[in-house]
Amino acid sequence: MTKRSDGRYVDDAPFDPDAALQQVERADLDAPNWVLVWRKFKTHKLGLISGVFLLLCYLMLPFAGFIAPYGPNERNGEHLYAPPQSIHWFHDGEFIGPHVYPIVAEADLETFQWTFTPDLEDPRKIKFFCEGTEYKLAGLIASDTHLFCPPEGATLFLWGSDRLGRDVFSRILYGAQLSLTVGLIGISVSFFLGILFGSIAGYFGGRIDWVINRVIEILRSLPELPLWLALSAAVPSNWSPVAVFFIISIILGILDWPGLARSVRAKFLSLREEEYVRAAEMMGASSGRVIRKHLLPNFMSHLIASATLSIPAMILGETALSFLGLGLRAPAVSWGVMLNDAQNLASIEIYPWTAIPMLPIIVIVLAFNFLGDGLRDSLDPYQQ
């Protein structure tokens, strides 16, 4: 070691690249598991972008009423099937800020369709942080402040309006609160049942394993969609939308657990013979402690990946049931309920914006699948 003029010591030994590489590899091996997972997950660009997008979507849910310019069931009888309106910034070559042009609805007696003509000589500025329809922030705090509102004497249908004159953009934001939440509730029920029965069957084996396996095989042999329809049709039609929402979530979770239970059982059958499990049992650890502290942590990576891949199936299940009229029903607002209003292909051909609720479903399902692929690859950080 040599002391420099600034008081620092410098190693005089020649640089050894092999030794430096070994130090880097040793540091990687000594790093916490979450650090290794994060390093590998960052290299999966599609999964990372999908994760950020989904995080923003779920953070937006409590503020859907603030972002939406209209209420979920607010009607405008003079603008049925109004087309999407564009936001303009310049008028006659002069910058005046974000504005829209009022549209006038007229009935075409030849085609029996509504035609909308914008008044290009009358720009109306969009209002920001304005008062509008009352809503509850995060479902708790009453408020009537919106991020932006339509101008006086004009409308603001960013994605058009439906057959009752309701804003499609606002309804999609409100519908996300139910459609995205149903997956979280359903996967919670599914994981509780799947882990419970799968761990019991895999750890104890014997007659308990045989009974649980037969139940799993019976449930998996039933056709999924007709079973959904039968259970959903049994829900009383006079129940409140909130009660129907929770029942649909629980039904989706109950029907999804057999696949996870079979995976947990297979993993536990192999792990219960490991030496550390035998050592814990010899030291007097209870069966519940062995399962919680020793077996489940070794299976957690698969559970996390399975959760991200199962949530879109729950969302699609709710959408399918609501589309068929057996899930959530009006006045509840979900993407499936909105698609139920767009069943008429002739209406979609004439008013294509009524099919816009399909787009968030496709985007969300793809994002969950990409996130699941990224997590599945990253949760085994030592795999090359």
Q: Numbering strands along the chain, what is their spatial order in the largest sheet?
A: 3-4-7
Helix-strand pattern: EEHHHHEEEEEEEHHHHHHHHHH
Reading off the top of the CATH hierarchy, the class of the largest domain is best stated as Mainly Alpha
CATH homologous superfamily assignment of the largest domain:
MetI-like
Poorly predicted parts = none
- Specify the helix fraction band: 55-70%
Q: At the third CATH level, what is the topology name of the largest domain?
A: MetI-like fold
Per-chain topology:
Elements: E1 2-3, E2 9-10, H1 17-30, H2 33-43, H3 45-60, H4 64-67, E3 88-91, E4 94-100, E5 103-108, E6 113-118, E7 124-125, E8 127-137, E9 141-149, H5 168-204, H6 206-221, H7 224-233, H8 241-271, H9 275-282, H10 287-295, H11 300-323, H12 335-340, H13 345-350, H14 358-378
Helix pairs in contact: 2-14, 3-14, 5-6, 5-8, 5-11, 6-8, 7-8, 8-11, 9-10, 11-14
In short:
The protein contains 14 helices and nine strands. The protein is of the alpha+beta class and 384 residues long.
